[in-house]
Amino acid sequence: MSSHQTHLNEEIEKLKHQVLNMAAMTERAVEKATRGFVERDEGLAEEVILGDNRINELEVDIDRFCLRLLALEGPVAGDLRFIVGCMRISVDLERIADEAVNIAERSMILSSRPPLPFHDDIRAMSDKALVMLRHAVRSFSSGDPDKAREVCCMDNLVDELNQKNIRKVIEYMVTETPAIRRSVHIINIIRRYERIADLSTNVAETVVFVVSGTNIKHQRYFDDRVPEADTPSRRIEDVGAEG
Fold first, then answer.
1. Which sign, positive or negative, has the C-alpha torsion 145, 147, 150, 154?
2. Residue 240 belongs to a domain
3. Is 177 a member of any domain?
4. Which site among 82, 121, 131, 153 is 20 to 30 Å from 194 CA-CA?
5. Cα–Cα distance, 238 to 243 (Å, whole number)
6. What range does the domain containing 84 cover?
7. How far apart are CA 156 and CA 34, in angstroms?
8. Is residue 236 part of a domain?
9. Under a CB-based contact definition with an 8 Å cutoff, are residues 160 and 154 in contact?
10. Is residue 241 part of a domain?
């Protein structure tokens, strides 16, 4: 192995460490935001909001580091995919952290108001979204595309919970009109967890790309094996018929 390749490998290890550090901070932000909501703890919510700047700084640092490697080291093949993949992953992690901030901000508003009966539903959804994030990060750490693909398969379950929980809140709003404003905040929180699951799926898709060189983003929309009822055109027709 040449001295240049040895140096590049060392730099890539540093980059991997940075991304894993950012991922750990992002996981903690989601965990704290969830606890802040469930436990009605303004202190935890505030910690999430105040800690977001550090995660933003890490994204900038990783982006700068990646650009330097691309410009000075001339990476190819797997090394090139890894560097580009780290840039993608850091963007998705920063967005997940932003969603945690959104949850924390809503929690701070709700913590001073009478509680609504949706904590268990949201906790179940948040647990699944957090599992997806953790598995996506572990698949990146271990370079395991199979674990990454498992994360992509889990996204459908969170989507179903998203729809179910929003329906439940809307039905509640119909009979409990004084709670409409609080219910809107609850719906926003539900959507934030659905978005965290989507972004975790993005991370997992990037891991597959980095390890195998295969781009699986949006694959289900272009795969001939997808049943007709699940294609975008079919769904649009169904919506039109129902309207």
1. negative
2. no
3. yes
4. 82
5. 9
6. 3-231
7. 21
8. no
9. no
10. no
Q: How many domains does the chain have?
A: 1
How many angstroms separate the CA atoms of 140 and 94, rounded? 16
N- to C-terminal Cα separation, the chain:
64
Structure tokens of 41? 């703890």
The one-letter code for the residue type at 226 is: V
CA distance linking residue 207 with residue 4, whole number of Å: 25
Length of the chain: 243
Closest CA to 210 of 26, 66, 94: 66
Domain with residue 170: its CATH number is: 1.20.58.220
User: pLDDT tens digits for the chain (243 residues)?
Assistant: 667 677 788 899 999 999 999 999 999 999 999 999 999 999 999 999 999 999 999 999 999 999 999 898 787 888 999 999 999 999 999 999 999 999 999 999 999 899 999 999 999 999 999 999 999 999 999 999 999 999 999 999 999 999 999 999 999 999 999 999 999 999 999 999 999 999 999 999 999 999 988 887 766 544 444 444 443 333 323 333 333
d(CA 30, CA 192): 10
